[in-house]
Amino acid sequence: MKKREFIDELKDALEIEDKDQEITLETNLKDLEEYDSLSVLSIIAMIDKNFGKQIPSSDFIKVTTVSSLMELIGKKHFD
Amino acid sequence: MSVKILNIEYYLPKTIITNDDLAKQFSDWSSEKIEKKVGIKERHIVKEDETALDLALEAGKKILKNYDKDKIDFLLLCTQSPEYYLPSGACILQDRLGLKTNIGAFDYNLGCSGFIYGLAVAKSLINSNIAKNILLITSETYTKHIHPKDKGNKTIFGDAAAAIIIEKSEEEQIGEFVLGTDGSGYEDLIVPNGGLRNRYDVNAKEIDDGSGSIRTDNNLYMNGPEIFNFTIKAIPKVVDEILAKNNITLDDLDYVIFHQANKYMNEYLRKKINIPKEKFYLNLLHTGNTVSATIPIAIKDALDNKLIKRGDKVLLVGFGVGYSWGGTIVIL
Predict the structure, then answer these.
(1) Within 10 Å of residue B233's Cβ, how many Cβ atoms?
(2) Active-site annotation of B, residues
(3) Which residues lie below 8 Å from residue B74, measured CB to CB, with a gap of 6+?
(4) What residue of A is the nearest CA neighbor of B262?
(5) Which of A78, A77, A44, A48 has its CA nearest to residue A61?
(6) Residues contacting B16, CB < 8 A, separation 6+
(7) What does the alpha-carbon distance between residue B3 and residue B134 come to, in Å, rounded to a whole number?
(8) In sequence order, what are the beta bridge partners of B27?
(9) CATH superfamily of the domain spanning B178-331
(10) Span B66-122, pLDDT tens digits
């Protein structure tokens, strides 16, 4: 998957409706207003759907930036 | 020998917590957001002096209004909110419901899979000629275990009891079962204190989960993301196994009822398994997640609202705390 597509999927999962809201690889998910305990479920679902992977919650807690989430999924999945 | 579900009734405690109540307590919650995300508008909760056994009694009385109670020859009570360590709540319930004394009765401790296990046990009791007419009651009051400041769990769970009569039948109306257990996940949904491993601690310290929910180890703890992981991994396979064991396809089924965990999770499962929307029950609006009572409540509501009719083939799947899961196909 292209990094750009992944960020779009992530915006969908977080229900970020503002098209202009900038999300980059360096964005810290925990700084986003939309990020809460329910959006964690949405991100888990998005990763399951796109990569067929379940991310253990103990790893998920350590996620900070978009880039760190991608590392958790596995670099090989991204162009 | 063959068995069937004859009848279902349920009872909800009178006190209601609405989304507005929650939004007042938790400033970052809004009514609309709660309903949209978890599909719940209100949940019924027990009063301080009301217990799961009280709810079980009400549900039991309700179903016995239209059934000769002297015919009941076995009573099963599923709860994780027992009155006492001992005796078994089922024994007290036998007396309070005025059932005969020459019957078997026991409690079993399961959550969201509890109704399915109750059906499996009832079927085997009938097939082994131990009983003919079984009263199964699933009664749960998770709200007793939830910390008053636990935003997440307070939003999701409600209290309820369901009563089900399972009888011998001409035709087989309860199909083959698939049951499963994975205790490696026991800590993901747990009340850590209050049993004999860790006694109830009056000085237990408050734990803030970082997203607005506070609890202590005396309270219910749910690791939502991990439960979600378990569910999306296990349940699609379980559905395949149930279909194979019963020699049926999704297309041949009239309807599907899963444990009503929360709207988001159930809807994700539906899409993942490719179950058509019109065949899939999804309704927690007025009850919330009532643990072992969700499936019987759903069956009764689906029948009452003519989403299904007598004779329909319905896939039932329960999953959760334990981890424990199970499913079967019933003809209603």
Answers:
(1) 13
(2) 112, 259, 289
(3) B103, B104, B105, B122, B125, B130, B131, B133, B134, B135
(4) A38
(5) A44
(6) B42, B43, B44, B45
(7) 10
(8) none
(9) Thiolase/Chalcone synthase (3.40.47.10)
(10) 999 999 999 999 999 999 999 999 999 999 999 999 999 999 999 999 999 999 999
- Tell me the CATH number at A71: 1.10.1200.10
* Other Cβ atoms closer than 10 A to B137: 33
Strand partners, B5: B166
Q: A54 and chain B: CB distance < 8 Å anywhere? A: yes
User: Which one-letter amino acid corresponds to residue A9?
Assistant: E
**Among chain A residues, CA nearest to B37:** A38
Q: Alpha helix locations (H) across A1-79?
A: 3-13, 37-51, 57-60, 66-73
Does the distance separating the beta carbons of B38 and A37 come in below 8 Å? no
A46: nearest CA partner in chain B: B268
d(CA B20, CA B29): 9
A44 touches chain B (CB under 8 A): yes
Selected residue of A30, A32, A33, A36 to mutate for chain B interface (largest B Cβ count, 10 A): A36
Please tell me the distance from the alpha carbon of residue B109 to that of residue B23, in angstroms, as a whole number: 33
Report whether CATH 3.30.70.270 matches the domain B2-169.
no
Decide if B211 and A41 are in contact by the 8 Å CB cutoff.
Answer: no
Nearest to B225 among A36, A41, A49 (CB): A41
Q: Nearest chain B Cα to A54, which residue?
A: B229
Which DSSP letter does residue B310 get? T
Best of B29, B233, B268 to mutate (most A CBs within 10 Å, chain A): B268
What's the structural domain count of chain A?
1
CB of A65 less than 8 A from some CB of B: no
- Write out the residue range of the structural domain in which residue A40 sits: 3-77
pLDDT classification of A78: cutoffs 50, 70, 90:
confident
B121-176 per-position pLDDT tens digit:
999 999 999 999 999 999 999 999 999 999 999 999 999 999 999 999 999 999 99
Domain spans of chain B, in order of start: 2-169, 178-331
- First-to-last CA distance in chain B? 17
ipTM for this model = 0.88
User: Is the CB of A37 inside 8 Å of chain B's CB atoms?
Assistant: yes
pTM of the full predicted structure? 0.95
Residues in chain A within 8 Å Cβ distance of B152: 37
Mean per-residue pLDDT of chain B:
96
